[in-house]
């Protein structure tokens, strides 16, 4: 066991300053393969190391020791070990071995899934994300894993906390797709339909050369959420959507498109019949719950439309116009909507009349001004970011060579003979 | 608030009473007068007479006497012409219901057909002779004769082709006008109204000044084409521009009475108040047309002076007859709906509050029905108001510009925010993809 003990000693000795750490890193890289061969005996070595002090070494050994498939009992033992490591490790160290850390975290996810206790992975993964990301705009490969665990554990609120950040950078497009898709589902769970729509929209309109399953599923949910949020589905995808998506999406989501058409007629009975007839399809896609919300949203929308037209209306009339069964049901709907702030109205129970009011917001108070001010600041920041990005791209060599090549129809290989102005 | 209601309520009372009283002094509106087929038919000549009568016969199945009357006149009219194909169809339609005098006349048919055969041969020979001699004018005449021949025998597509062929041999603008007029006539009969528009503009482009009668005819043709294309406003303009000289010159297409009716209804459905006043009521030449159809004149005046009930009454009475009109038939529902909507909008426009019961009285409808109509108009944003269904009052609603602006600004801001963010993401995705491909190539 000479080499192992020597390695431990090196880890212990070389974990203090930066120069040492980089030396240690190269030593560990060389030792990686031999560590894997010895994976069974590594747990003993782990106990000699301090996760907070020897983060890098601990990470390599932990990664190697978890590389073999394991049973439920072993997983149960290992979860607290990894959790403790994630909580106490030093962020600068683990960022050096980015992939190792990601793979350890993914194994943690697999283990909690194996143990059927996704809740146990939520908090450690959140910590891991925060430690791994260099800025809040950075999307780590752990984001989708974390959101998946949140979904399974139904910890939607925790999930929302990372969805608040706007991400721009990512390592793999797949991470981004999954992040937006799972994020959309979490927002749906929290009934934040606007945010959900934005996230799903990102997936659907993302540039892609072949159609992918994530985008198709996202589009199905996008249709449903769009109906709930706006009461309609725009007939075509925006023109920046990739051509494969524009061509194939509609065909792949036929029942959903038809549902949207049915919705646009405004007849609740027809919609219900359609949903009943296609119940199985929606159920197979695990979208039945959302479809039911769509049906519910229709009566809400109809009531909302009434507020544009009427000042007072009896509950009886509301029930008949919106196709509800009884005035009582209409009253419940109106009450619920007043509570949710979706309409402004007062119910007079004595004569069964509803009085619709105007939006009381006068845009005169301090909060509104603050809100507007912060929006202006936000948009100014965004516009600065846009300028920076534009400058970056216009100086990007790859972009320029491509743009120049496309214009001139030169192949990349004989690009050298092209005048220098394209090379910048 | 309450005091306000009362005053405005009283005001409505007064205004309504005004309209109501005057109404009583007027002569009663004759209701549902049946169309006098003979008088109607005498307005037209040529093919349109036959077609219009046939149209009436096809569309008044529940009125046997009228149908037979129309068919009888068609029979007589066709006998004067040479269209044996149509003759056979009409005889089939009559089906012996008009006695032996109006049965199948094989001898006549054979004779006409034989003569047609001969004439065609003769025309053919003549045309060939002209063509070998290359005399432009004669070739034009030859094609024109062919056109006339086909037209008389009801072969409209061939007639149209022959008339259009004369175009290459036209030497003066008079010839061009003649060609255009023939083409317009045939295309209107075929129902090919885009062709009609086409040839109207061709005729109008001729360098020499046209005589007023031709201009009037062209205006009518353009009006008809626009009417069929559902461009009611343009149609109204064209009919209104039609000069008095039209008279009975264009009876093979349209009677001056029709100009008044088509133009009046289209104008009513699409013009706003000032336009209605300037272009219809104060239009001297159109007034002469309106004199021919007093009902339309009355209803336009009623509409302008806000006597909607009597206006709608007139419209209701005219409806049955207008439905028997070959050109107006398809558009009458749309035009009527538009006129009614305009009336509702104009009625509600000057008031802050309107009592729905009085409004319903003025429009001769029930409060519930009126509420439905108003609801549709408000949803369409044609009336800015809200209905107090409890007290049956319509309140005008004045949009708060300031609030609306704030709302719009905030919304635009958040849309921009969202769009830019998703654009940046897409840009990054493309960049990633691009980098990947490059690194693979290198």
From TrEMBL, chain A:
InterPro entries: COP9_N (IPR055089), CSN3 (IPR050756), PCI_dom (IPR000717), WH_DNA-bd_sf (IPR036390)
GO CC terms of this entry: COP9 signalosome; cytoplasm
Coiled-coil ranges per UniProt: none
Sequence ranges assigned to domain PCI in this UniProt record: 192-361
Compartmental location: Cytoplasm; Nucleus
Main localization (coarse): cytoplasm
Keyword Zinc included in the entry's annotation: no
Pfam assignment, any one: COP9_hel_rpt
Biological processes annotated in GO: ubiquitin-dependent protein catabolic process
Keyword list, A-Z: Cytoplasm, Nucleus, Signalosome
Family according to the record: Belongs to the CSN3 family.
Protein name from the UniProt record: COP9 signalosome complex subunit 3
Organism, scientific name: Quillaja saponaria
Organism taxonomic ancestry: Eukaryota, Viridiplantae, Streptophyta, Embryophyta, Tracheophyta
Automatic annotation (TrEMBL), chain B:
Gene3D superfamilies hit by this protein: 1.25.40.570
GO cellular component assignments: COP9 signalosome; cytoplasm
PCI domain: residues covered: 231-401
InterPro entries reported in the protein's UniProt record: CSN1_C, PCI_dom, Rpn7/CSN1, Rpn7_N, WH_DNA-bd_sf
Keyword Nucleus: yes
Cell compartment(s), UniProt: Cytoplasm; Nucleus
Domain of life of the organism encoding this protein: Eukaryota
One Pfam family in the UniProt entry: CSN1_C
Keywords: Cytoplasm, Nucleus, Signalosome
Family: Belongs to the CSN1 family.
Official protein name in the record: COP9 signalosome complex subunit 1
Organism name: Quillaja saponaria (Soap bark tree)
